[in-house]
Amino acid sequence: MLRDPRHAPAQVPASLRKGFLATFAGNTVFAASQWAALSAIARIGGPEMLGEYALALAIVTPVAMFSHLNLRAVLATDMERRHSFGDYLVVRLWTTALAAGAVLAIALSGGYSRPVAPVLVAAVVVLSADNLSDIYYAALQRRNRMDQIARSTAARGALSAAALGAALWLTHNLLVAVTAQAAARIAILLAYDRPAGSAGESRAASGFHGQARILAAALPLGAVLMLASLAGNLPRYAIERHLGLAALGAFAAPASFMAVGSTVINALGQAATPQLAGCFSKGDMPGFRRLALRFAGAAGLLGAAGVAVALAAGRLALVLAYGRPYAAYSDLLVWLMGAALVSYVAGALGYIVTSVRAFAFQAPLFAVVAAASGIASWALIPRWGLKGAAVALAASWLVQIAGSLPILRGSLREARRAAQ
User: Fold this and answer.
1) pLDDT tens for each residue of 49-62
2) Torsion sign over Cα 120, 122, 123, 128
3) Are the C-beta atoms of 33 and 234 separated by less than 8 Å?
4) What confidence tens digit (pLDDT) does each residue in 174-208 have?
5) Is 6 part of any domain?
6) 353 and 411 in contact (C-beta within 8 Å)?
7) Do the Cβ atoms of 283 and 366 come closer than 8 Å?
8) Do residues 303 and 333 make contact, with C-beta atoms less than 8 angstroms apart?
9) What does residue 354 show for φ and ψ, rounded to 5 degrees?
10) What is the extent of the structural domain holding 327?
11) How far is CA 215 from CA 15, 68, 109, 251, 273, in A?
12) How many domains does one find in the chain?
């Protein structure tokens, strides 16, 4: 599956279509692998173990996302190469280490049950490896080498899912399984991502001042990612608090189908971000608008298709993916895919806003989004159960859409003034 990137011939930068197809293929394999991992946990360990895994990810992900700082977007849109790749890498290493320490403190002092706390530690190793792979992906994305990113993404997903599934089958122990998953992610990082991403890049670090400027530019995005992740995970915290781990496992199974469309949105967004940023930086506003409208429109159509499929074949899909006991949640799947429709449009707008580098405005917006998610979760889940969680998610993403549009309009207005 993998070739040594150091011996790959130089190629003409990929077109948007080729970039999308490569990214979509890689993300599809990765999403299918994540699905396979969840299915293995559900079938071997049952809803309780799936709930433990879902809770661990819900706790770790917001912290990891803050350390992530969305440096991939900052680096990929840094067309003028204001900072060296080495500076970006140093920032990512420090923030990832701090995040790992924070999760370790949460695991030791958070009062979580014995099965959950050790899994928290193993899960942060997985996400730390992903964080480091991501900064190498950013360098590849700026060079429009989406094919190499796709190759790594597919291998990372398939190998880690196989490792988790095999370990779980042999031991029936979630901690051992997640540790095996972490080892697989680290192997891909060292064997492929590091040589591929750093090829042709300056790995020399300029020092504190350059890295501080990167950190200052990216901190708002780190806050955005943390708040966005928190908004998506607050319903899970409320489910665990009010309904228990087994209910959280039951929710995680149909909720995983939302990742199907997210795979497409992320592939489109990652391929389109450099194109959108290029149009914007050159003052090609008609080209920027055309591409942005197509992206947002495709997101809406994809969400509508997801709702239709859930209505027509949701029960069958749940049985095939997770087993017959999960067929009872087919109605919940429809509600979740309705929320996913809103999520896909919000996600597309997020990529578009990021492409114009309107970083500072996003943190206040996502603070409101997270607040909306928390309020809706704690109000609706005790009354409506798992369907209340779907409504809470949809409400938070509607708030994101409502806030993203004026940010985008303001950036376009400012660009027009600068061009006059």
Assistant:
1) 999 899 888 888 88
2) positive
3) no
4) 999 999 999 999 999 999 999 988 887 777 677 77
5) no
6) yes
7) no
8) no
9) -65, -35
10) 12-419
11) 31, 11, 29, 36, 21
12) 1
